[in-house]
Automatic annotation (TrEMBL):
Keywords assigned: Transferase
Chain spans, region Disordered: 361-390
Protein name: Putative glycosyltransferase
GO MF: glycosyltransferase activity
tRNA-binding among keywords: no
Gene3D superfamilies the UniProt entry points to: Glycogen Phosphorylase B (3.40.50.2000)
Length: 390
């Protein structure tokens, strides 16, 4: 079987890493499957390192830089996708988030002979409900990387016009993938002894990362007794000009999740994928969500804090951030957070999604009725196994 994954990312990594997590488990369950990724992520090298082939399209930011205009971009990327489908001849198309593609370039291929799967995050349900419901009719299966209860009562899911599956949070790491603490620290070049806190700011290509790192840097002098490991954002062309103290090491490793046992806690932004990985590893964290253009990280933090997962600083001061870090390092706090994670959040959503996708019938559903022109998308950045419409 040949599977084509489509992900739009540009200066982020979230969509790509979630698709990679699912593809990794599909390969484990069906080793003869061949995969190809079509992505706009500016740093897709992680796919190559994981043994997956890819082709890259221009990211939205590149289109703006070249001043190509929407219609010229649409013409170019549509021709690119047509050549890709004709050359690769997929048996299945798996799309992350944007059902029609970023500017509608997938629409001509949603009535082809291949099976079609959409991975649809919670953020998309908050948008145009009718347009969302129309878009999913083109798909044989919609996989939701969250719990059923998180979207309970949402009108987009009422009598969903296609099959849906709540996989739960999709992480790029399974418990069996986690390395022992000593081995993880050795791989990362970290001291063998002493507490170390991970600082993770996401993919790093956006302008909202610098304020988060500056906030962390301001709090570090209040924690000279702790070690810190700053995960260099893989899409950052350069780190902000911050004088990191002697207790900070810069680490460069993507994916880093198998090495999470090296850390005692984390200061983390609130992307769904990195959060799911930390929950799988049982890593207690302090949330420092990204600001605009991200529109969903504050919402994510409210969800997780409501479930008892992680802590947030009491205010914006360095002292409040330092106090929150010390709190999550306390054994009783860490134990409580890990207990909340284990109560349904640290599920193997990637394997569950992979199994559901591999069970999609070989005969794709009939194409949906036409719904008019499709405008360009604007991105953001239950584990009970019951169908969404049943």
């Amino acid at each position: 079987m040949r599977v084509l994954f489509y992900t739009v990312n540009g200066k982020g990594l979230g969509h790509l890493m979630r698709a990679l997590a699912v593809a990794r488990q599909m390969r484990r369950l069906a080793p003869a499957t061949r995969f190809l990724f079509a992505t706009s992520c500016e740093d897709p090298g992680v796919l190559w390192r994981e043994g997956f082939h890819y082709v890259k399209t221009l990211a939205p930011e590149a289109i703006e830089d070249h001043k190509m205009g929407l219609e010229r971009h649409r013409t170019m990327v549509s021709a690119f996708m047509r050549a890709l489908f004709e050359g690769f001849r997929p048996d299945m198309l798996v799309v992350d988030s944007f059902a029609y593609g970023s500017i509608g370039e997938l629409r001509p291929f949603l009535d082809g002979p291949w099976r079609r799967v959409l991975i649809s995050n919670l953020f998309l349900l908050q948008r145009d409900v009718e347009r969302y419901r129309q878009s999913v009719t083109y798909y044989d299966l919609v996989v939701f990387p969250f719990h059923r209860e998180e979207a309970a009562g949402h009108p987009a899911l009422a009598r969903l016009p296609t099959s849906g599956f709540f996989a739960g949070p999709i992480a790029g790491v399974r418990p069996d993938d986690l390395l022992p603490r000593a081995e993880a620290r050795a791989i990362l070049g970290l001291p063998a002894e002493g507490p170390i806190v991970l600082v993770a700011a996401g993919g790093g290509g956006g302008e909202s990362v610098a304020p988060v790192l500056a906030r962390v840097a301001a709090a570090l002098p209040l924690m000279p007794d702790l070690g810190f490991a700053l995960l260099e954002p893989p899409l950052a062309r350069e780190l902000p000009a911050i004088a990191w103290g002697p207790n900070v090491r810069i680490v460069r490793r993507v994916p880093i999740a198998p090495c999470f046992a090296a850390f005692d806690g984390a200061i983390s932004t609130a992307g769904m994928n990195s959060a799911a990985e930390m929950m799988t590893a049982g890593l207690p964290m302090v949330w420092t969500p990204l600001g605009p253009p991200s529109v969903d990280q504050d919402r994510n933090v409210r969800r997780w804090m409501g479930a008892g997962i992680g802590r947030t600083p009491a205010d914006e001061t360095p002292a409040a951030l330092a106090a929150a870090v010390r709190d999550v390092l306390r054994p009783e706090t860490a134990l409580a957070i890990r207990g909340a994670m284990a109560a349904g959040w640290s599920v193997d959503g990637a394997s569950r999604a992979a199994m559901a996708i591999l069970r999609v019938p070989r005969t794709p559903r009939p194409p949906a009725a036409e719904a008019g022109p499709i405008p360009a998308e604007k991105g953001s950045d239950d584990a009970n196994g019951k169908p969404a419409n049943g």
